[in-house]
Amino acid sequence: MISPVRTITALCALCALGALGAALTACGTPHASTRIVNATASPSAASVSRPPTLAPGPAGLTPVFEHGLRSRTDKTVALTFDADMTADQGERAAAGERFDNPELIAALRQLKVPATLFMTGRWVEEYPIQARSIGRDPLFEVANHSYSHHAFTEDCHGLPTMAPARMRADLERAYRVFREAGVSDPMPYFRFPGGCYDSRALRRLSASGVTAVQWDVTSGDAFATDADDVVREVLDGVRPGSIVVMHCTRSAAPVTERAVRKIVPALRERGFRFVKVSELVGTTAARAVAAP
């Protein structure tokens, strides 16, 4: 087995198997990256022609982005929401379980908070109208969380493990589903299911041109029952340039909307400005290009 590029403690994966779902409550904070990767193009070209991405890592591996610049003068923070639904949860959805969270999206719109939503292709298939509405709203950007939400490594919080030969196809299948649902301009950003990856997974996705987006603040909203606990986790962890991981999944993250309504004004009082992941990537890439 290939050794991991770096070890992270990932968010609670939302598992397809009902018996395992309740067990996925062990959340932690991943190690923040200290590596700044060169930009793929000049800042002006990136802003005009396409969303900013990072250059491949060592040996051409898919680059991994965990947080933006730690600026004292521009305190930015990106709220990200994983819209998780695995390929195996169709029966549960048909029985009435809700994997969406329209109240959360309404709260973000009411609060005028830019956000990045990482959707699985299976989630988009289940909620195409919501996905299209989010994707066409300039307040949001949509990114890729795989089609199946199966793990790209072994031993990833009980998630089923994907065969290496299927990894890139699974990512590309999600983008096809986005297009079929009418999601406008999905971003070239990818979040590994469960946050689990290793050098083999990074190599398998390298030809896709995506930047893998992790996080440096775990909200703990998966399976949480007390919104105030989530609020404390986020407020205690956020620093300038932080990426916060949360969920847009009503059944498995039922208090997220209430937590967001407290987190947003508290961070604004501290001088933070909410941005999409693309802005964090762009400013980081621009700094890398400008560095001697």
TrEMBL record:
<feature type="signal peptide">
    <location>
        <begin position="1"/>
        <end position="21"/>
    </location>
</feature>
<protein>
    <submittedName>
        <fullName>Polysaccharide deacetylase family protein</fullName>
    </submittedName>
</protein>
<dbReference type="InterPro" id="IPR050248">
    <property type="entry name" value="Polysacc_deacetylase_ArnD"/>
</dbReference>
<dbReference type="InterPro" id="IPR011330">
    <property type="entry name" value="Glyco_hydro/deAcase_b/a-brl"/>
</dbReference>
<dbReference type="Pfam" id="PF01522">
    <property type="entry name" value="Polysacc_deac_1"/>
</dbReference>
<feature type="domain" description="NodB homology">
    <location>
        <begin position="75"/>
        <end position="275"/>
    </location>
</feature>
<keyword id="KW-0732">Signal</keyword>
<dbReference type="InterPro" id="IPR002509">
    <property type="entry name" value="NODB_dom"/>
</dbReference>
